[in-house]
Amino acid sequence: QVELQQSGPGLVKPSQTLSLTCAISGDSVSSNSAAWSWIRQSPSRGLEWLGRTYYASKWYNDYAVSVKSRITINPDTSKNHFSLHLYSVTPEDTALYYCARAGGSDAFDVWGQGTMVTVSS
Amino acid sequence: DIQMTQSPSTLSASVGDRVTITCRASQSISSWLAWYQQKPGKAPKLLIYKASTLESGVPSRFSGSGSGTEFTLTISSLKPDDFATYYCQQYTSWTFGQGTKVESK
Q1: Which of A78, A97, A110, B98 has minimal Cβ neighbours within 10 Å of its Cβ?
Q2: Is there a contact between A64 and B96 if contact means CB atoms under 8 Å apart?
């Protein structure tokens, strides 16, 4: 059974960096049949996919156009987790953040528990 | 970006009703569509992928159909546990619909 456990701060100051980690159990971040994504949800923007990392002979990343200039998603094979770094945040980045796996179906079949992040001074 | 539009935004129904939710894509996505159910305080749960394939463990009263730009999610006989918000999602470039809340009439 695959589980994702999120960790990270719930409050970030404007202009700083939002950093979250998603620990994977029951699967591998290096799996050739999975991709690992970050998704956020807010009343104003709904569910918004932010980006993903996946391994297919080498590491790849894809990012949403809306955040492409200020996001990185990194895998950590030694800890079997992946992380989100969103730079130069503003109050508009306040949202519930989820990590999720896209498995063999290519849809998001496993989700983390969610982390509410507030951007405020 | 491919835009996903769901209708209706809210649906009032009773236990036992047949419920249909529609999702339209702004351009063809073949069958690369998933449906999720979300309850308050919980992460979305995958119900259907590839437009019509039921995820393991999901009750057979849920079904999906469509291809190209028009898709539907049907609940054949609404159960009390089905009152929730439902989202479609295309996974050619990973955008979600705005959601349909199924509430008790």
Answers
A1: A78
A2: no
